[in-house]
Give the backbone structure.
Amino acid sequence: DTGVSQDPRHKITKRGQNVTFRCDPISEHNRLYWYRQTLGQGPEFLTYFQNEAQLEKSRLLSDRFSAERPKGSFSTLEIQRTEQGDSAMYLCASSLEGRVEQYFGPGTRLTVT
Amino acid sequence: AQSVTQLGSHVSVSEGALVLLRCNYSSSVPPYLFWYVQYPNQGLQLLLKYTSAATLVKGINGFEAEFKKSETSFHLTKPSAHMSDAAEYFCAVFNNRKLIWGLGTSLAVNP
């Protein structure tokens, strides 16, 4: 069990640029989640995949955000035309179907200047 | 809608003292409840979970939590705090395939 991995761990970008983050879940986990966490807050749900199907998206996810999981393994989260308000920690988690506990990666900290 | 309230955004204890972090939930159905710990600039690590089996749940690092339906609580305790326990602790409830989180409690452990 290698755990959930995320890349990059840190990203600094200028406002208006596009960024893409990657998440590799635990290998046998078919469910994958993205959350966003700002300073002093708990995580907020963004979106959820079961295998390659994106089953739910939060209203927090504006049109500038898109997530994919093309082969049901790794996932990418892209933010277009970044804004300063996008600065946050982006967390990925995975779980086994039928199990409720989620296992988190180390997160990607995004800073938009 | 299900929600979680963590009482006390900051808790400070002395090394060796009892740790008590409070969590209350609201749920219209029997809940699945979790405690996670987050160290600075890291992801969230699962401490323990309640899934309607035993009401007293033991987790990692000596932590445990008791589910009390009558009080809608799931408080986290540890008999004796270590310096390494200093971190942010989050309570969460499972709702429709995703986790709903409290705001977190920052635990400081003083020597």
Remarks:
- Chain B has a mean pLDDT of 92.
